[in-house]
Amino acid sequence: MIVSSDLGVVVLAAGGSSRFGSTKQLADIDGATLLERVVDSVQVWAPGRVIVVLGAQSERIRRVIADSVEVVICPEWDSGMSASLAAGVAAIAVDPEVERCAVVMGDTLGLDPHDAAAVLAASDADPQAVVQATFRRLPAHPTVFPRSWFERLIGLTGDRGARDLLRSGYENVVRVPLTKSELVDVDTPADLPTH
């Protein structure tokens, strides 16, 4: 898979896992942690610069992260997802070669590489657009933001991430349905895949 060198990826994994009951990022799935599974999946379709944003339990989680990714610690992780998103985008934004940033949730499994490639192809076709994956007609990830959005993302507050900006409709947002993926948002241990 050919990936543009101007793409950076931010994996949001700073949350406190309150509904999960333990450190969700470290949950075991067939010998690897949930976060390792997500990062491995990302590196299939985006082998370039990947930043993982950590917050709660960051020292424990950091030990399982591959050396091939960068780790950013978000001290304000408990103020909401926007703080984590802002920290990740701020870290990506300092790289002058990165013109687009794909955002991925650190607790979502099942993204098919072909679907990720379709999202990236849509971004390649219109690099100034925001390209958002949809799953079963609902907003999903990855979402690819052009550099023109970085400042807005860095300025976000609260627990809604970029959701309100994307819903406002005042920008060019291209939506790409995920047709091969079976996304699973892991909120509780019952959401973990079993084999």
From TrEMBL:
Pfam families: NTP_transf_3. Residues 9-169 form the MobA-like NTP transferase domain. Coiled coil: none annotated. The keyword Ligase does not apply. Keywords: Nucleotidyltransferase, Transferase. GO terms for molecular function: nucleotidyltransferase activity. This is CTP:molybdopterin cytidylyltransferase.
